[in-house]
Structures are given as C-alpha cells and as structure tokens.
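Note to self: the last two entries modelled the partners one at a time, which told us nothing about the interface. This time every component goes in together.
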Amino acid sequence: AQKVTQAQTEISVVEKEDVTLDCVYETRDTTYYLFWYKQPPSGELVFLIRRNSFDEQNEISGRYSWNFQKSTSSFNFTITASQVVDSAVYFCALITAGNNRKLIWGLGTSLAVNP
Amino acid sequence: GAGVSQSPSNKVTEKGKDVELRCDPISGHTALYWYRQSLGQGLEFLIYFQGNSAPDKSGLPSDRFSAERTGGSVSTLTIQRTQQEDSAVYLCASSLDNSDTQYFGPGTRLTVL
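The predicted structure of the combined assembly is written out below.
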C-alpha cells in the first residue's frame, strides 16, 4: 500500500524564519515520484517540485529547498527566510508505477507566516 | 499557454438534483484526472483518463458518479441525485502522459443544500 504522512497539521512562524515541512512516504514500488504542491488561500493547487525515486539529489530553488532521503523515506521541504506570501497549505504527494499514476496525498500542512 | 480550466467555479444545488462539472485540460495533455477535496477528508482520487478511456475509476464513491471524456480533451463529471455529502471542491488535473506532472485547475466548489 502507498501512503503519505505529513505529521505537522499547522505551523505558525514569524516572517524571515526558516521552516521545514516534513513528509514521510510508504511504498513497496522501486519506481515512484514525489511531489510538493502549494495551495494558497485562493484554492488553486500549484506544482512546486517533482522528484523521481532514482534521483536523491537535493534541490534548491530560490528560498525553497527539498531534501530527499530514501533511507528514511522522507522528502522534506524547507522555506528559508519565510514571507507572508508563503502562507498556504502545502501538500506532499506520491505516484508509483503500480497505481495507475494517481496521486496519493498527505493531509497537508497549513503554514501561517506572520508579519 | 492556457492552464487547466474548470466550470462552473461555484455550483449550489438542491439535494436530489443532477450536476455536471466540466474540465478543459491543457492542450496536448493526454492524461486527465478528477480529484475531490473535502473538509476533513483531504484530497481523494476519483477517476483517471488516458485519452478517452478510463483505465482507473476506482475512486468514484458510488454509481451516482460518472465521468466521460470526448475527443481526448474536455471531460465532464456528472453527479446524479446529489447528496449533502457530495459537497466538496472538485479538482481536475491534466498531464502530458500518465507519468508526467499533473497540473491542476482552479476547481469547482459544489454545495448541496
């Protein structure tokens, strides 16, 4: 069975703080893809990153960085120097070769960045 | 280019009525997906289309739900005899093929009174 766990339901930080959102996944497939999506208050899901199971290289994009560790089945997301515009719900998701490519979602982490 | 579009953006209906929700995928995307987002339920998969066929309908919650896709493009999700528990945001996504990143539309918020 596939599963994604985002243990942090809500996080509140003050602007300019760094914040890490945790994601732990479960799958028996060796080929899979991990995603992060952002859902701002407007409601639209915005794609942030995709990582395949064969590429454990960490990625940095501006203030965003992702740490993929197969040994701990984790794909954590860090926002450096958070801003109010980062306030949103962030979802981690998984697709495996065995599930017809449907996204399996975590329950999301609601991030509030306060001025 | 244009993203995924969905219509209507909001739909209020009375219990027992039928509703149709429409999704226009990104041009050239062969795979199309419907998800539902409810308070307390998170995001759940409903159905997946590859072209006009639906290899995976496993997420449709009951036989009141159906979906079709024509011309490898527009998809319609139909809910018959709506119930209050159908109230949710219905999200559509498309991808180039079934191994690519899914891009989402703005959703249709359905309220069943």
